[in-house]
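Much of what follows relies on a compact textual record of a protein's fold. The record below shows the convention in full:
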Amino acid sequence: MREVKSEASEILRGHAEHQFAEELVELEKQDKHQRPPSWKLSPRAVSTYLLGGKLPNGFQITPKYIGNRRLMEIAIATLATDRALLLLGVPGTAKSWVSEHLAAAVSADSTLIVQGTAGTSEESIRYGWNYARLLSEGPSLGALVSSPVMRAMRDGKIARIEELTRIPADVQDTLITVLSEKTLPIPELNEEVQAVKGFNVIATANDRDKGVNELSSALKRRFNTVVLPVPETIEEEVEIVRRRVESMGHALELPAEPPALEEVRRIVVIFRELRSGLTIDGKSKIKTPSGTMSTAEAISVVNSGLALAGHFGDGKISAKDLASGVTGAVIKDPVQDVIVWKEYLETVVKERDGWKDIYRACRDVT
């Protein structure tokens, strides 16, 4: 008889407030500190949720962000003021991840999101219209379609804007009134929506390629910027990759064993060396590829290897399973990056003790 699964178990990736609902409930029960208006948790409890820790009753909170504690405290404190928060960093530094978890911990709702693209319109940030009702009724509240930002203002929640610098400049500037006056005018109805206490905005932006459009100085002044760096140490990055791979492998139901720590470490070392242009021991300079070689890409490489090992191998990840993913991550420019990658394989990977298997596998793929 076919097993019937719950609807929740069929979801590929649940929202943070659903994935970590048990932790959020326990934090709320144990939270004795002052909470800003409309916040579900106090700033201290939000910090514990993000960075992990043990509660007084012994319940263990898993870390969502591994890195500088002070940066997270600054980000959380910003949201408790009237300043919006801008998370800035190179691709793969967990900007969206942190944004989602901050919204989940503060508002218990991470879904009020605007995804920035070159085609994002003003209606995505302000409001739109149900044109069938607009034609039959004329401008009315019933015909108005609220944006995620408007809903966050009405409910006193956090609105998220991803890739802010990819949004056209004139659309970006519709945020200025929202952030400075905490109000969203609706001139067609001669009305306005005023923000309820608890409302704020978290935006993310990429400082590697600067997106499509730089922020105006007027808009920059309305954000407090927190720059998320790449992981400081190998150990930090290995732990981030290990945790995310384990979590995603479970969600995707990959039929493979969790990767050995040494395999994760080798991938992280390759990414860090190519990213910095320097070997781990600091003795040799190497050329860097055109890609970002981010932690997020390292996670993707290991996950791809797990899928290969599980579905086409013996379930145990090997250098052969990782080689195609690593090569694809490095070679973005088929001319320049191939040269960089081959030189790195011959001068660094080939000479490293215990790395002959990954050298041969990557050489064969390349």
Residues 1-6 have pLDDT under 50 and may be disordered. The first strand starts at residue 53 and ends at 54. Residues 234-365 form one domain.
